[in-house]
Amino acid sequence: MKNTKGQSVKILYGENDVEHLNEKSIALQQAGHEVQKAVGRKAVQDALRAGSFDLVILGPTLSKDDRHHLPYMVKKANSKTRVLVLHESGHRHHEVDAAIDDPREVHPILDIINRLVAQPVTRK
After folding, report:
1. Is the per-residue pLDDT at 35 higher than 80?
2. d(CA 10, CA 1)
3. What phi and psi, each to the nearest 5 degrees, are found at residue 46?
């Protein structure tokens, strides 16, 4: 539940592929993060309505449309929630805080999470 700086990180992680979701979620949990999994766009939306998160990760198995519209929904639910997209298309979206092509290893994702949590939130 804590990053390398000792801050608590609550993550909502969305994918369309359950196997991919489970694999990455386990790695994130083993790194000490609290992860809530969501399969598909509707599940991500429902989770955003039901709870609050420090970070929302949108995986590469979500559709291009989902990766485009969900960042808006995340920021509408809480403008301070960070958005990480595991697909190169995320770099082009103004509501996305960070994007990376989905790496095989979880270490690059953990590095981005630590960097995002260390940065002050500039949105109101």
Report:
1. yes
2. 7
3. -60, -40
